[in-house]
Amino acid sequence: MRELMAFEWRVLRRERTLWLVLAIFIGLGAYASASGARFTGERRAAIAELITEQCARLDSIAALMPQLDAGTDSVPSFLDPRMPAIAGRGAAAQYAILPPGPLTALSIGQADVQPFWAQVTTRTKQTFFVNDEIENPARLLAGRLDVAFVILVVFPLLVLALTFDVVAGERERGTLALVLAQPVEPRRVLGAKVGLRAILVAGMAIALIIGAAVATGLPLSDAQTVLRLIAWSGVVLLYGAFWFSVALLVNARRLSAAASAVALLGAWLLVIVVLPALAAAAISVTHPAPSRIALTTQLREATDAAAERRQDAVATFLLDHPGAASDSSARSDPFVQAVALQDAAERTMAPHYVAFDAALDAQRRAAERFRLLSPALVVQGALLDLSGSGEHRFRHYERQFDRYHETWRETFTARMLRQERLNAATLAALPAWMFVEEGWSTLGARLAPGLLILLALVLAIGVSGWRALDRAGRTA
Amino acid sequence: MLRTIASKEYRELLRDGRFRWAGGIVAGLLLVAGLAGFIAWREQAAQRDAAQATMQATWFNQPPKNPHSAAHYGLWAFKPQMPLAFVDRGVDPYAGTASWLEAHRMNEFRFRPAMDATAAQRFGEWTAAGVLQQLIPLLIILLGFSAFAGERERGTLRQLASLGVPTATLLRGKALGVTAALAVLCVPAAVIGAALVTMSSGASGLLRLGALSTVYLAYFGVILTVVLVVSAQARSARAALVTLLALWAANGLLVPRVAADVAQAAFPTPTAREFQAQVQRALATGIDGHSPRGARADALRDSVLRTNGVSSVDSLPFNYDGFAMQRGEEHANEVYAHYFAQLWDRFGQQDRAQLVGTVVAPVIAVRFLSMGIAGTDFGQHRAFAEQAEAYRQEFNRVMNHEIRDQARADESFSYQADSTLWRSIPAFTYEAPSLGHALATHTVSLMALGAWLVLAALLVRRERRIEVA
Amino acid sequence: MTTVTPSPLLEARGLTKRYGDTLALDTLDLSVGAGEVYCLLGANGAGKSTTINCFLDFVRPDAGSAMIGGTVAAQDPIGTKRRLAYIPETVMLYSNLSALENLEYFATLATGGRPVRAELAQHLRTAGLTDTQLDQRVGGFSKGMRQKVGIAIALAKGADVLLLDEPTSGLDPKASNEFHRLLGLMRDRGAAVLMATHDLFRAKESGTRIGIMKAGRKVAELRADEIGHADLEQLYLTHMHD
Fold this sequence. Notes:
The structure holds 3 protein chains of 3 kinds. Chain A has one domain. Helix content of chain A is 73%, strand content 2%. Chain A has helices at 2-13, 16-70, 84-91, 137-142, 147-163, 166-173, 175-180, 186-215, 223-252, 257-286, 292-308, 310-320, 327-332, 334-371, 375-387, 391-418, 424-428, 440-468, and strands at residues 94-97, 117-120. Chain C has 9 helices and 10 strands. A 6-stranded mixed sheet of chain C has the order 6-7-8-3-9-10, with helices on both faces. The mean pLDDT of chain C is 87. The chains are: A mainly alpha, B mainly alpha, C alpha/beta. Chains A and C meet through α1 and α7 of A and α2, β6 and α3 of C.
């Protein structure tokens, strides 16, 4: 087998197709890496700005507080950062930041349309995810040429270009007759041809991934990053194996080179265009995204309703949060009233939020099911998830955000009721935001079904192609 | 003779398995895209209209309160769906759908639909426009790549030539035949589209649908010409197919993305934080950076006192707080108008820069034109944003003037107005730009498409000799 | 000329092949012994190529069997192919490889081992290629030169059965004569040669026995030395008329 491949290499390397494919790979890979690097660079710079601003703000408050205590400085009461209500509502607010995923430079995915930061205050949740990065909508529409796109869409075309005429080309050139007159199983000779191309393509893919990883400055000393890269490469190789198995099957049928090309192109269209289109249509018809506009309307109505029964709201609030320094002063404290109203509105909204989140989660789960329709979707999901730029990581972030928001609010509500002022020490002790990546078990559980089904598909198609290859040995 | 050639080509294509399969699949996708799009569109349109009505009602039904509080309460504006948005969603998924109109601040649009969609949908979703822009050209390639090259290989081209058929007739005849085969697919699609549009939006939608059809017909004409010319010039059917597929892949997959990147690099936009910082700075220190808020306030007060010849604001014949707030509001409005216009103009520059890519990829021009006609391009998002902003400025003005004119000096923030004031401002309605206006915004795209048509015509003229062997 | 040995290396018994309604081969019986050159004459579509394809297991007969050295080709395609060498009408090779590289490839396939380059070069020289031609890319080779590479493959294989399909069509007289010399070489080494051809002259010159096929059947068989050139032509045309 090895000699056969060595000979095939000799033939192949003197033809133009291989070098053309390699050139396209390198060119697109370089461009895609630059694109990804630029994106993560800009994202990191934006995050750095946020952190700088936060530190500066908190430092200046920490410096101001002792001066206010000492009386050497004064601010209007509605700007006094020592008041928990003021601090919690904005002055001491921290940013809950979603850093770019471990491999986002390779696969930008949804990261360009999802918010990546929110300022956590004591206000209601709906005011938060409003910080979209400024981006021309037409550019978001065009999409990004990142490494994942090259792999998903262009890579199969390159495989197609290399494999469509393995058998048919030999037949049309006339060398097939001479080859098959030799005492070798046609399967081995033809298999060696396809096999060599598979090895070359796998090599190119791995080189692309490593090259892109280096070019985009991924931290290759970090174990997590390396693990994800390895998993990423595995998925890419599985995808390549899928396309090679399809090529094997097409080559085994006795078609002309042109007909093989059309058949493979048809397969490409089916997997990349038709099936995903059906899947997307199915998702949007069966599980449309819940309406944030409806939620906004409901929130407004809930707030209005709470305001109408202000005193009831305050009373309920004080019952739920015992520990007020003094009930009467609390009742008349405008800050307490504001928080109480907000609380009442949120209680009305709670079932709506739950329904909203449930609908969103149902949509995500349906999407995972419909992905199974097409290998391209399965691979896209895996690549995005491993890169950390899919919708699951964002939901993970939202859930952590919710918990942090709750903690923040409780801290400040307690202080506000106890009429405790903040000082520099307590400021430093406020709960800090820490984003925790999804664990491998969660990732694995989510990705395993699709990838295993794809593996089974590859094996099935590959085996039937391998068996059928023998029949290609008949030239008449 | 033209008709003979055309009808033979047409019959051959219709019987060809290629056409049946590929045409069937493309037709199926077009149907799925159109219908799924329509269902979603209708759902969205109803939701937004209902939500807007609810919001307007909350405004009208406000209890008696201080007008400034009402201004802070504000109103939400929800962008409505345009009639043809189900054919071409344009930038709608990527532009916000809701804006909170309140006092002192011009807010950005929130809730991009794309944020709530899954990655699978972003990868896989095909709108009808997408099918028309990317897949019909592929179908045309499939139908036409062997028109000349295949006949040459089979030897029938030589026979035709020996009969004395002029080249131009051959070209036109084949073009006609392929067009007729395509029409089998496109005409029913157009009819269904027209039915859906009439059902949902009436005659205005039909006019736009007509304009859209014309644009796409021109585009298909260009593609068909290129395909036939390549087929005539290629050495073999296989070479023709490879060339055309490479062109198609570059056209559809690569060039639009690269063009967008290049446009962004040539005309960069500020980050959200930079933008906010710029705005905040200008609000504090004036647009020219030289007149801080405090100083401006003092200067204003002094000049008003002087003009009215009094020594304290309490003696003014109107409420000074109301007056000052409105002045402050107007200053803020100027700042916002300036910076947002700058930003939106920058987007427009980027879009025009993208059009440079049309030189190799006509699909870019068609994309912009299609969005423009459907009413889903950025220009029309901007129009909505501007109208919403104008409404915001209006109701702020009315609220501030109410205080200025009706409140006594000591009751600036305790004066109460009631629903007569709220209802004195008519409901917010959006007037979409007309079709003519939309087309005027996209003259460059129109010219680009026109240039491609001219090029196609020239190519056809130039084909005087086709190699027959 | 050596005498015909009793056990034929190449044998067809009742070989029948149908393509749809057409009977390409109709119970054909054929045998070629070691050191024999059997020339199969017939018009286009008479079944000559189909016969050869049966021995190569390129097609499976509907009835009867094609045997190489007593083994049925359909039952042991690999084993039978080891013993035979096939030279098609136009020997198509890998244009970007040299003659030697092409031979190396096919010889490796043929023997399963690693052929020695020096030996392969010698085979090419025996087949009639010059030293410069050994390393030339075959893309520019003439039909005769390609055929020589084909013969070199047969030599490298040490095949004792040779299947030739229209070997002299398109060869100029000099090349045709060289072919005759090489054919004699193979025959003298004890190979059984089956040659499908239109070339009546070459059939009489190089052949041991001649068979005439028409519509899938063998309508005449005779020894080459039993008949003269003119009579052979007459016989052939007579059978074609029926």
